[in-house]
Amino acid sequence: MADRPYTVLSCGMSIDGYIDCPSINRLPLSNEADFDRVDGVRAHCDAIMVGAATVRNDNPRLLVRSAQRRRQRVALGLAASPVKVTVTNSGCLNPESVFFTAGEVEKLVYCASPAVPATRARLEHLATVIDAGPEVAMRWITEDLHQRGICALLVEGGGSVHTQFLTADVADELQLVVAPLFVGDPQAHRFVNAGTFPWKPGRRAPLVEVRQIGDVVLLRYALSQACDEQVLRVAR
After folding, report:
1. Per-residue pLDDT tens over the stretch 214-230
2. Which domains are present in the chain?
């Protein structure tokens, strides 16, 4: 793991494994207490990543919410919020998205080679567009992030991005929040897509913590040897 950041996957899902619902604009999969927990994780990381679909559909700010946590980061010589990172094959990103306009932090866009020229022209000075090769690969991206000084990476989805990290075996910890509701809509998106995952009957992911947070439950899984107790404590 020395050549890539310590990587935490973070996701909220329904009891039946869905992360959204086509009939609801914003599916309530968390609560204020859990939002604050995630904010604490963000504050301890060097970068936050989401997929381009999340940028388009959810328009996330991806900033540290707590003023106290922002001040603590600044006191350490860091930006108030971590670097923002997204990944795209098509380069179809709106420069007016708050991903690009909110926060005085660095924004990185990893883009498949064919779409790089148009994406750089579209985003101009809003973000650094990085040529990620003909097909975007998470292992290469994490290695490039590490070379840019990113030692701790928080991945907040969506399903395609989580699937790619897990199938490539380049995640160290999974923080999965289960909300007390069902979606039951086959048109909704699940936490992960189909794929070949390293964790199976012969290699079970160790469950390192179960925590009730109001009406949701946090499940934390160790996905690599790097996910030892010391690192887990820091990543809370």
Report:
1. 999 999 999 998 985 44
2. 6-234 (3.40.430.10)
